[in-house]
Specification:
This protein is α+β, with helices and mostly antiparallel strands. It is built from 3 helices and 4 strands; from the N terminus they run βαββααβ.
């Protein structure tokens, strides 16, 4: 069954760090099957606290999503995301 990683950016802290993250993250895809379904497109908040944007990535399985997120390449890039903004992120199992 597919799985999805959802990132919601709640507050930008350092745009330069986010720029570095954005430059590094494409290389983290090597060896991982993933599809970007949503990348900071137009949105409208319907409930909850406001966010600045959202990214949704699709993976072939929950384990594949965990493998990408936990990979050394992504974790190195993610340090810039952590320094650049406050996010929420989670993996969710899709319907098969």
């Amino acid at each position: 069954m597919p799985a999805y990683i959802v990132f919601t950016r709640e507050e930008t802290l350092d745009p330069a760090e986010l720029k570095t993250y954005g430059e590094q993250v494409p290389a983290t895809r090597a060896g991982h099957e993933l599809t970007a379904l949503v990348r900071y497109g137009e949105f409208e908040m319907l409930e909850g606290d406001p966010i600045e944007g959202c990214v949704i990535l699709q993976f072939p399985s929950f384990d594949a999503a965990k493998a990408w997120y936990g990979s050394p390449a992504y974790q190195a890039a993610a340090q810039h995301r952590f320094a650049g903004a406050r996010y929420r992120a989670f993996i969710i199992q899709g319907l098969g």
